Structure formats: structure tokens, C-alpha cells
Write the C-alpha cells for this entry.
Amino acid sequence: MTTPDATYSFTKLVVADLDRMIAYYGAVYGLQEVGRYKADVAGHPIEEVMLGRDGTMGGLILFRYLDRDEPSNGEVLLGFTTGDLAALFERGVAAGGSVYVEIHDPDIPGVVGVGFLADPEGHVAEVIESLRPRG
């Protein structure tokens, strides 16, 4: 069996309000806009904003259909890790998000806690805090 010549590179999250979502993912996860692109996809005009850190693409792209009012929620689930789950959840709520599933101990070796946080449009991210390696 041969290995497919493909590597995971990015996630596109369909949103309704690019500016609001840029602000949210900046305030909560420290991501900033590193690029913007307008195009046409299957006859629909779109705009994308690439998010990352220090000018480097981080794998999350906010995708907006310019001729549609609202995307459907649940089209993707994002995954993040953090060293301070409680602080991240506080930032998320302060930035307009909501707790989807409270922080809890998942009883998984090496994982301190897990919770699910919804952004202001209802997109859900699973956020995990892992034990720091001893050094």
C-alpha cells in the first residue's frame, strides 16, 4: 500500500462577519491576519482571510461568501491546545464567545482538561490543556 501524497495544511471556517471573527480569533487565540484573498468559487464571490502569527500562515482561514447572508454552523470543528485552559475560556467569553461544554477532566493520560468554546457565530472549538513535559 502506498502512502497518499497529501499533508494536512489548513482549515477553512465559513463565517458571516470576517471582521468580527478576525477580532475574536485574535483576542482568544492570538491569531492575526496574515493575508487576504478575493475570488470566485462555483459562481459565488468570496473573500478569505488567512490567520497566523508573526506573519506566518497558521492553518486557519476564515472564508466568507459575499453573496450569502449566513453560513450553516457545524461545518467544521476546530482544535486548539493551551497551557492555561481557564484563562483561554475567560478570553473567549470576554470576546463574545460562549462555553459550549464546561472545562472538565477527560481522564486521558497527559491531559489536564478539555472544554468546548463557541465563537460568536456558534462555531465550536475543542480546547485541550496538556501536562507540560518535565525538563
